[in-house]
Amino acid sequence: YHDCYLMLLAAHDWAHARRRAVLQQVVLWADNLEPADPGVDTVDVVRSLRESAEAAEGAGKPMDDLPQPDADVPRATIDAWRLPTDCVRVVELIGLPSWRIYRRHIVPERGCQAQQGTVAIVYTSSELADDGSIPPIAVGFGECLVWLMASRLAMAVKHDYQLSAQCLGQYHECLSMVQVIDVRQDGSNDQHPLDLLLERNILSGGRGYGGGPEWPSGTRAAGGPTI
Fold first, then answer.
1. What is the C-alpha to C-alpha distance for residues 178 and 47, in angstroms, rounded to an integer?
2. SS3 letters across the chain
3. Model's pTM, two decimal places?
4. pLDDT one-digit tens code per residue, 37-63
């Protein structure tokens, strides 16, 4: 149940599971993007490795078995931001124009820096999956979950591939309808549902949730009514 719930949450920007938070800034090593320990002096670490290598060489140990630091220079670090522990889908990142996700961290790209020093996130939370509840506002969400679970159980219990495929087809059909319902009731009446879907699609080049284009007065937005 929990795994299927998480899969369904990750399939769409559900209004009832959307959260917003300010991300915590962390420091990572630039070479492997692992969390850096600010209490470690990297110059002293490199110097210690060199001294160990020289002592081993004097004792006749093969140098290939020991770490070979290149120079007495600090190990490079980069600033990053940690994703919330309940984040299953990033909807929008505010304050960082160019970024990529590595494990559970947001890492800036192309030398870009955070605007105004803070980075905020709009994301889909796993909170509802953790407690197993479905809010009344989530119209059709439970039906989608049932079909997805039925597809999994058909394979796990009955080993029936055909039944599993049929249930999975019903799930995708149900999901398409419920996504439309969710978008229609998400936001004020003057917003265009197609614009919202396109803005949240990373492949369309949209600017994310809440950052859509501003249409001049007297024009039509994506075939919608005159503004």
1. 61
2. CHHHHHHHHHCCCCHHHEEEEECEEEEEECCCCCECCCCCCHHHHHHHHHHHHHHHHHCCCCHHHCCCCCCCCCCCEEEEEECCCCEEEEEEEECCCCEEEECCEEEECCCCCCHHHCCEEEEEECHHHHHCCCCCCCCCHHHHHHHHHHHHHHHHCCCCHHHHHHHHHHHHHHHHHHHHHHHHCCCCCCCCHHHHHHHHCHHHCCCCCCCCCCCCCCCECCCCCEC
3. 0.63
4. 655 444 444 455 556 656 666 655 554
